[in-house]
Amino acid sequence: MVKICCIGAGYVGGPTMAVIALKCPSVEVAVVDIWDKRIAAWNSDQLPIYEPGLDDVVKQCRGKNLFFSTDVKKHVKEADIVFVSVNTPTKTTGLGAGKAADLTYWESAARMIADVSESSKVVVEKSTVPVKTAEAIEKILSHNSKGIKFQILSNPEFLAEGTAIQDLFNPDRVLIGGRETPEGQEAIQALKDVYAQWVSEDRIITTNLWSAELSKLAANAFLAQRISSVNAMSALCEATGANVSQVSHAIGKDTRIGPKFLNTSVGFGGSCFQKDILNLVYICECNGLPEVAEYWRQVVKINDYQKSRFVNRVVASMFNTVSTKKIAILGFAFKKDTGDTRETPAIDVCKGLLVDKAELSIYDPQVTQDQIQRDLTLRKFDWDHPIHLQPVNPTSCFNVDQVKVVRDAYEATKGAHGICILTEWDEFKSLDYNKIYENMQKPAFIFDGRYVIDADKLREIGFIVFSIGKPLDAWLKDMPAVV
Ligand code: NAD
Ligand code: UDX
């Protein structure tokens, strides 16, 4: 029986390994982590992450060929293939701070593998890492005095949250990079045999190590670039009276462009896009390519611009001040169908409103009060560290009384001056907006950052409506925002 161990039981390690266990009954899979509470949750009925379909997959295999454990060393020692799926945050201090990937967790995992191993192993980079990381990892692993041989593979993960199980069941492609030596090719084949249990051969791409590592950063950069492109257009649409949905539809019909990933929004969020682009920027700078670095940096700059221009629009529309006004925030997760808030645009929007002294009433169906309070007080990039390693006394620029987290959208909007929709949860489409309008202060404003509502219907009710990228109301035209 092939034994797989995955170090890191997070959003990638957990679902990916659960699907491998389901699809490969003859493989024994252990997912290990140093975060004991997370492992306890994986072993309970309340899994640590919300992902449609995940419960079902875990229930089918847990205790049979899928195990979650804190005994990291034991499972690494026994494994034939070790996946490393630990977090690779953006560095917050020192060389490359604010851009470079912090490989502390990766390096410590590699050193531990070298220490505890008693037999040769294939070590798989599952985390997203800078191109050439495998070379550094090889150095750490090969400097053991035991004569053990390690083969390093790069097998980046392309799942998106909210559709992780679907993406893993039916991936567009699986990418495996390895050394072009006989031993490297043998290791590639061993991993290919695992995926071939459910992924057709033509979708398993094999490359050299550096191409695989770079392809992951490139894919995320291209995806994020599309969003920043359409978001840049949304600003021009508002200025000219064009409608960004119509523009997206028209350009997406060109088969060379295609219709996907052209939805304008209040900005992209999630743990990957910004982090990976900043990492790419740093790699370009280190390789003496400042023009290329600047090109990609612009994708992040436009994303920041989109979030701040949304805040400016809210404040400007409401007579240039939101001080002591109640603003309802509908949705805090970075997209629907996940409870994940990492780099959610809601953090920057909320902070922008809090600085202007707004009173926020926040509702999200999947995000807890603790999580929201933590997100609003942590410093930039500190979120990407295991919870027990996050700073104990984070600083904050607002008074804690300014933020209330409530249990439904009606409570959030009661008595509010304005509503900001920041996540596209389906339930926001079918709210009783007549009832909401009656219970709000007048004039009642709604700012839709996600295309959830039917703007014309809401205008008929009496709302003043801002939909990102859509022609502006007469009211909003009279209150131009500094963008
Ligand atoms: P995560 O923070 O949810 O999980 C990482 C886990 O690794 C944490 O539970 C942490 O405690 C654990 N860990 C850290 N150091 C460890 C060590 N030395 N030993 C044992 N456990 C350790 O992160 P994630 O979202 O699963 O992402 C993991 C990697 O995959 C990152 O590099 C990320 O960029 C990449 N990635 C993420 C996604 C996504 O959608 N989240 C998609 C593709 C790739
Ligand atoms: C992304 C990549 O899609 C995935 O391949 C990679 O493995 C990890 O990073 P994820 O961040 O989970 O996945 O979700 P994704 O669906 O890509 O959305 C990212 C952000 O972009 C979200 O905030 C989403 O709302 C936003 N988005 C997406 C838009 O604003 N417009 C779009 O058209 C699509």
**Pairing-aware structural class of the strands and helices?**
alpha/beta
The overall pLDDT average reads 94
- State the strand order across the main sheet: 3-2-1-4-5-6
Task: Give me the CATH architecture of the largest domain, please.
Answer: 3-Layer(aba) Sandwich
Strand percentage? 5-15%
Radius of gyration: 24 Å
Helix percent reads 40-55%
Q: Which overall shape is indicated by the principal axes computed on the Cα atoms? A: elongated
Compounds present? nicotinamide-adenine-dinucleotide, uridine-5'-diphosphate-xylopyranose
Q: How far is it from the N-terminal to the C-terminal residue, by CA?
A: 60 Å
The CATH topology of the largest domain turns out to be Rossmann fold
Structural account:
Keywords: NAD, Oxidoreductase. It comes from Prunus avium (Cherry). This is UDP-glucose 6-dehydrogenase. It is an enzyme of class 1 (oxidoreductase). The chain has 483 residues and is an alpha/beta fold. The chain has 2 domains: 2-199, Rossmann fold; 221-467, Rossmann fold (3-Layer(aba) Sandwich). The chain has helices at residues 13-23, 36-42, 54-61, 72-78, 104-116, 133-142, 164-169, 182-195, 209-240, 244-252, 273-286, 290-317, 345-355, 369-377, 409-413, 433-438, 455-461, 474-478, and strands at residues 2-7, 27-32, 66-69, 81-84, 121-125, 150-154, 174-178, 204-208, 326-330, 359-363, 403-405, 418-421, 445-448, 464-467. It has a 6-stranded parallel sheet with strand order 3-2-1-4-5-6, sandwiched between helices. Strand 7 (174-178), helix 8 (182-195) and strand 8 form a beta-alpha-beta unit. The radius of gyration is 24 Å and the shape is elongated. The relative contact order is 0.09. The mean pLDDT is 94. The structure holds nicotinamide-adenine-dinucleotide (NAD) and uridine-5'-diphosphate-xylopyranose (UDX).
